[in-house]
Write a structure and sequence with these properties.
Blueprint: H1 9-21, H2 23-38, H3 42-48, H4 57-64, H5 70-81, E1 96-104, E2 107-113, H6 115-135, E3 143-146, E4 154-155, E5 161-163, H7 165-170, H8 173-176, H9 190-193, H10 198-211, E6 216-220, H11 224-247, H12 257-267, H13 273-283, H14 296-303, E7 312-314, E8 319-322, E9 335-337, E10 357-366, E11 369-378, E12 380-382, E13 389-390, H15 391-407, E14 410-420, E15 427-436, H16 443-461, H17 464-471, E16 479-484, E17 489-491
Parallel strand pairs: 1-5, 3-6, 15-16
Antiparallel strand pairs: 1-2, 4-5, 7-8, 8-9, 9-11, 10-11, 12-13, 14-15, 16-17
Helix pairs in contact: 1-6, 10-11, 10-12, 11-13, 15-16
């Protein structure tokens, strides 16, 4: 995939027009390229019987290659993870595995990846730059206050990296050697972006942005939930941030060496009492009122008249499309599919009990490229950030706590659940109605001990995405609100 980073705005606009006007042909050519390259792989050869040999790639693909779930392909992926050659699945060498937020059998899916993914990430960034330039005047005159977080990568038995798609891009040479345009100009040094401790990183992002507040033209993150966390961080820590700015020195608890050294350079040991006073005056005001759709009301409150922009839609499997109308309201956003990034099939939903599946509604076309709106995720009942807890997982967790509950002489009568994002980080809330088998509850102290054990049992039973969030501070402790028949509600 050729880079367009050196193209002028007119040339980038022509690229977008060509892609969307010839979507069908580009998709057909891409499928043919994929099948021709990979016909000899162990996974495809039994379906394709040796290659295309003049046959239509699309008809052969639809007739011979079945629709599968992750679990169908997982045995092949596991073999590569454990050291067998990449060509089991792909002629191009598999360089790493991307861990998804959606889970399968209680663990993140491992998506094989290679250089093509990074090319797609860089390509879509160049097109987003073109679209934003077209719709938002003056944005190129400042910097972006972007709250990037990188995950803690692990490795396969043979040493291939495993981590999130965003982290892989941020740690790659594509990001390190990114173009010198406004779109890639940030208030935070790269050392902060690549920091390992999310609490320290978000604090340093916020501090760097406040110090350079006159240059900030846009604020953003990969996930809306992170912006809400930052707002809460500002609410809790503005006095300390003001002290850093007033003194020109960083707080001692920032121990990540990359963060500490780079932010100290930004501060420069230079006291800024006027800026500190200005921020302190604003933050001293009394009012701090306070998926991604669940965060829109909070963001709307703090953004006032500023536009909320969703630029693109992507996952660990691929980058899908961009928002060519960036100033549309969040609830009205549709993404325009880019046909050169991967081969797409739109399949009517019939239900799937195992996988987390994105549900999309095709809302129209831009030229001849489909536009789609993400309407939800099948089977997901609870989500704070990148965690995706399915109904099935929730029931398994409830069944574990019932073992604790039953042994104490209490019985669960009804339950429901929700998320609470009024505090940061957000957390799961489970509502229970319980009753005593012998109709004799021996005081609230006994009940609290029992329900605390239930909380721990439930958290231990939830999937790896939830546990990752708990360990790294993006999800708060699970809360159980208990209504005891013939008694009052209690929070544990």
């Amino acid at each position: 995939m050729s880079t367009i980073s050196d193209f002028n705005e007119e040339e980038k606009g022509k690229v977008l027009q060509d892609l969307t006007s010839n979507a069908k042909q580009i998709q057909d050519d891409l499928l043919k390229e994929i099948l021709t390259l990979n016909a000899g792989t162990e996974y495809l050869k039994d379906f394709l019987h040796g290659g295309l040999h003049g046959r239509s790639a699309k008809e052969l693909f639809k007739k011979n290659v079945p629709i599968v779930t992750y679990e169908d392909v997982k045995p092949y992926i596991d073999r590569v993870v454990n050291g067998e050659p990449s060509n089991i699945l792909s002629v191009l060498p598999i360089t790493n595995f991307l861990l998804t937020s959606g889970t399968s059998a209680g663990a993140s899916k491992m998506i094989p990846s290679n250089i093509k993914f990074l090319e797609g990430y860089a390509f879509i960034g160049d097109l987003i730059l073109h679209v934003i330039n077209k719709h938002v005047k003056g944005v190129e005159k400042g910097k972006g206050m972007l709250f990037f977080l990188t995950s803690h990568d692990s490795r396969t038995p043979i040493g291939l990296p495993m981590g999130s798609a965003t982290s892989w891009y941020l740690k790659s040479d594509y990001f390190k050697n990114r173009p010198s345009s406004w779109y890639y100009s940030y208030t935070s040094p790269d050392e902060v972006i690549l920091g390992s401790d999310s609490k320290q990183v978000l604090y340093c992002h916020l501090l760097c942005g406040l110090v350079q507040r006159d240059e900030v033209m846009r604020i953003g993150s990969i996930f809306a939930s992170i912006i809400v966390r930052v707002i809460k961080l500002l609410e809790d820590s503005w006095k300390e941030l003001c002290w850093n700015i007033r003194s020109g020195h960083l707080s001692e608890w920032i121990t990540d060496s990359g963060c500490r050294n780079s932010v100290s350079i930004v501060l420069g040991g230079q006291p800024r009492p006027e800026l500190s006073d200005e921020i302190e005056k604003i933050c001293s005001e009394e009012s701090w009122e306070g998926s991604m759709a669940q965060y829109v009301p909070t963001l709307n409150y703090y953004c006032n008249d500023l536009p909320l922009v969703s630029t693109a839609y992507a996952s660990s499997e691929s980058v899908y499309g961009i928002n060519i109308n960036p100033l549309s309201k969040p609830e009205d956003v549709s993404y325009t599919l880019l046909p050169n990034l991967c081969y797409f099939e739109f399949i009517p939903l019939e239900g799937d009990d195992n996988d987390v599946v994105d549900l999309v509604d095709v809302t129209g076309f831009y030229n001849k490229a489909p536009q789609f709106k993400v309407v939800g995720r099948e089977n997901v009942v609870l989500s704070i950030e990148t965690d995706m807890t399915k109904e099935e997982d929730l029931f398994k967790a409830v069944n574990q706590e019932k073992l604790v509950l039953n042994s104490s002489g209490l019985r669960l009568v009804h339950f429901t659940s929700s998320t609470d994002i009024s505090s940061s980080p957000g957390h799961y809330v489970i509502y229970w109605e319980v009753k005593a088998e012998n109709k004799d509850i021996k005081g609230l102290e006994f009940s609290e001990k029992t329900f605390l054990e239930c909380c721990l049992a439930m958290e231990d039973s939830l999937d790896e995405g939830y546990k990752y969030g708990r360990v790294h501070g993006t999800i708060g402790p699970l809360e159980i609100r208990v209504s005891i028949q013939d008694s009052h509600m209690h929070k544990i």
